[in-house]
Amino acid sequence: SHAFHSQPVFSRTTKLCSTSSETSSTNNKAHENTILYFDIGIPTSPTETIPLGRLTFHLTPQTHPHHLPLPISNLISLASNQRKSVDPKATYEGCAFQYSPSTIDDGSFRYRWGHVCDGYGRNGIQTTLASGKKTSWDEPFSDPQRSKECAHSCFGGVYYGQKYEDILDLLKTNNDNGQDDTTVILLTVPISGPGAGTSKFSIVRVSESPREWGERLLLNSAVVGYLDCGADGSFGFGEAENEESGGPTCLEVLRFMARQRMGPPTIINCGVTSS
User: Fold this and answer.
1) Which band of pLDDT confidence, cut at 50, 70 and 90, is reported for residue 8?
2) Residue-wise DSSP of 82-136
3) Are residues 222 and 188 in contact, defined by beta-carbon separation less than 8 angstroms?
4) Can you give 1-68 as a three-state secondary structure string?
5) pLDDT for the residue numbered 181
6) What is the pTM of this model?
């Protein structure tokens, strides 16, 4: 079993926000408010990991007009470990994010304002082909008709799923400080190109990117959720220390994950809840 670093990565005081129940859901249906979380750490040896914190995302509700059922169901299945008992690779646990100069936020032009996890390449869902045959667990899925219904033109290209402006407006409405400082971090999956219809997903810092990037970061991808930036970013390891210091927010966890140079950020634990 892993030993977790005894010193908290975050030590300065921040506002501690409450999160939903930590009980993982095994229901593959997209609830009205389905929440997916990833606990992030940096493995320093085969038996030791430095915990960074938790990233909590609100997935697009099933009732939303731009809900994409296949990729969201796949995310839910893999994050809640529904098939892990029969396939150890049907999960995100142990999966590392891509790590290179383009994934380190060091103030240079190389940083791409996003973080990509390929997963293990195993899906959590199967789809039925026109022939009536079901796809295999490692075969990419697609739903071109639904994607077409959720397509949005952007800078000469297209992205899919929830519209960036709609999420921005939603978060502005929920922002109670009266200031226009809303941060929008999106959870996306590729719709075309490498990794489409697989376990691959990205965390995209749209509103924090330079103006020339912005929504261009979403092209050929589908928006399937957004980061709860103000939620509690601490998790089970070193809870007492986090409670005393105030604990980091999810946004602070992501920013630290982007700046750190210790190694590839890795999903130590994951799950799905609803509220």
Assistant:
1) very low
2) TTTTT-TTSSSTTPBBP-SGGGS-SSSTT--SEEEE-TTS--S---B-TTSPBPP
3) yes
4) CCEECCCCCCCCCCCCCCCCCCCCCCCCCCCCCEEEEEEEEEEEECCEEEEEEEEEEEECCCCCCCCC
5) 67
6) 0.85
Residue 32's pLDDT is 62
Q: In this prediction, what percent of the chain has a pLDDT beyond 70?
A: 81
Residue 31 · residue 274 · CB < 8 Å: yes
> At 145, is the secondary structure helix, strand, or coil?
helix
- 189 three-class SS: strand
In sequence order, the β-bridge partners of residue 36 are 57, 272
What is the residue-averaged pLDDT of the chain? 84
**145 phi, psi to nearest 5 deg:** -65, -45
Q: How many CB atoms are located within 10 Å of the residue 74 CB? A: 25
In whole angstroms, what is the distance from residue 184 CA to residue 189 CA? 16
| Beta partners for residue 232, in sequence order | 249
Say if residue 115's pLDDT is above 50: yes
Q: Residue 160: what residue type?
A: Y
Would the pLDDT of 178 be above 80?
A: no
Q: Give the mean model confidence (pLDDT) for residues 144-171.
A: 94
> Following CA atoms 10, 14, 20, 25 in sequence, which dihedral angle do they give, to the nearest 10 degrees?
-20
Altogether, the residues listed in the chain come to a count of 275
